[in-house]
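seq:
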Amino acid sequence: MSQKIKPFKAIYYNPTLTSDHSLVVCPPYDVINKQQLKGLRKKSPYNFSRISIADNNDYLKSNKTFQTWLKQNILIKNKKDAFYLYEQNFKVEKSTYKRFGILVLLKMDKKKIFPHEHTLHAPKEDRRKIMTATKASLSPIFVIASRRFKELEIMHKKYSSKKPFLCFKDSDSNLNKVWIIENKMDIQNMTKESSNLSLVIADGHHRFETSYDYFSKNKNKFKDLNYILAYITGPQKGLMILPTHRVVSVEQKGKVLLARLNKHFIIETVSKNGLEKKFGLEKKFCFGIFQEGKFYFLRIKDMQILSRIAEKEYHSLPTCILHNIILPLLDTSGDIKYTHSIEEAQELAGIKKTAFILKTVNLKSVFRVSERGLRFPQKSTYFYPKLLSGIVARKFCKE
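struct:
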């Protein structure tokens, strides 16, 4: 029986040449906008975004940069197979959290690894081209075990008291630490427990599907091509999911808007702080609206309206209810803008648009929906913080 996870010989920045890793790492490719990309490129001529994001769709240039950095020992390859323990310390509002997981090669078993969001063609095509050009997995997908990964917790306790291989603060002031695990017994213990874990993809749906397709077409060209670079974590306090609010152009304003929604929702005018407080207390489905300088709190009163959504698993998901029930009650136009901050939602809405403020989805809902083979609407979950690209990469090899 093949292993679910494997250690690997990772590609990483040469620590003797790279004294400050905050200058060379970058967020995942899909959350970097043009302005952020310019800022990353100014930080260092060796910022990983020069490989992970193809300028003007020049994927051969990305590969040339990758190969050049390997030849110049800017990037080096570990001579030993290893796991990489990755810890992030961060703040959300005024509270401090810690999240840790393990970077490994993960077998792409579609029967035991569950997606939770739909994918789009364009991002998959982009990742296919970058993978084909570089013959590498440049950044890990993010997966979560459905139950406690006890050996991971044991390894974190053991290694976190040691000096890390990497330790730096990123652009969001989050403290990142990495330890290399080469001890065969430690690797064996985590490998053994992982065989019984069900996993859900938190981030990296496009990369997973692209990698699986690449494996299907190139099975015999490289060793362990049916394994993907992955970060695995388990349920823990630091596994943070932020809400994703929507900003939309809505024709109805003020009293007309409220009249459209009044049949199905109890509506109160509130302050921003009042809205957040009510979110914390209300157990039934509720949401907020910001329009023309005012906040409203809406709580469902007509539960029967949920029957408009055929799949009962969706009845507790804020984004499903918004897109299937609330927005169809209104006249909307244009593209939807997304944000995880109520303050930014206010700013994006201004005086012309309407912000829909949503509660976050909990981890149990993510597992319940995904294990049934169902999918969330796009941008339903935002796992924070994102995993940084440039910590480790995996080059495809024949041996």
